[in-house]
Write a structure and sequence with these properties.
Structural class: alpha+beta
Helix content: 10-25%
Shape: elongated
Strand content: 25-35%
Number of helices: 3
Largest sheet: 5 strands, antiparallel
Radius of gyration: 25 Å
Order of helices and strands: HHEEEEEHEE
């Protein structure tokens, strides 16, 4: 479906370089909505579909364009299904491999700070975190 969508918006030799979609509709063609196929993207989750502490976005892979309505077809990496959506932020320089590497990294864990016995009344900050006043 995406292939046909793109062919209909590309110059055609039988039409002497004209674009089929422009010939059929009589309107100029916009290319601003075209995106890199297979790029990483994030879909916005509506307020009524999430709770206060849930994520506001879902990671997905761009798969193509919707023919029925304006929107993008994408592969939802969390639910493992194809979904159509308009509220997407594209990361055109990232792929699914980048997402997998990011997911495999451990979540930040602050290093425990030990309290020195001879540092009474001083402030110790380690890596800009965990500022503690020893008394």
């Amino acid at each position: 479906m995406t292939t046909v969508y793109l062919i209909n918006r590309s110059p055609s030799v039988p039409l002497k370089g004209d674009v089929p979609q422009k010939v059929w509709t009589g309107k100029d063609i916009s290319y601003q909505h075209l995106r890199v196929f297979g790029c990483l993207s994030y879909m916005h989750i509506a307020k009524d579909q999430r709770s206060k502490l849930d994520n506001k976005v879902k990671p997905c892979i761009f798969m193509g364009y919707s023919e029925d309505e304006f929107g993008y077809r994408r592969w939802d990496l969390v639910e493992k299904k194809v979904v159509r959506s308009r509220d997407i932020v594209f990361m055109e320089d990232k792929t699914i491999e980048d997402w997998k590497q990011q997911e495999s990294k451990p979540v930040f864990q602050p290093t425990p700070t030990t309290i020195p016995a001879d540092h009474k009344g001083s402030i110790c900050c380690k890596d800009g975190f965990d500022c503690v006043r020893y008394t």
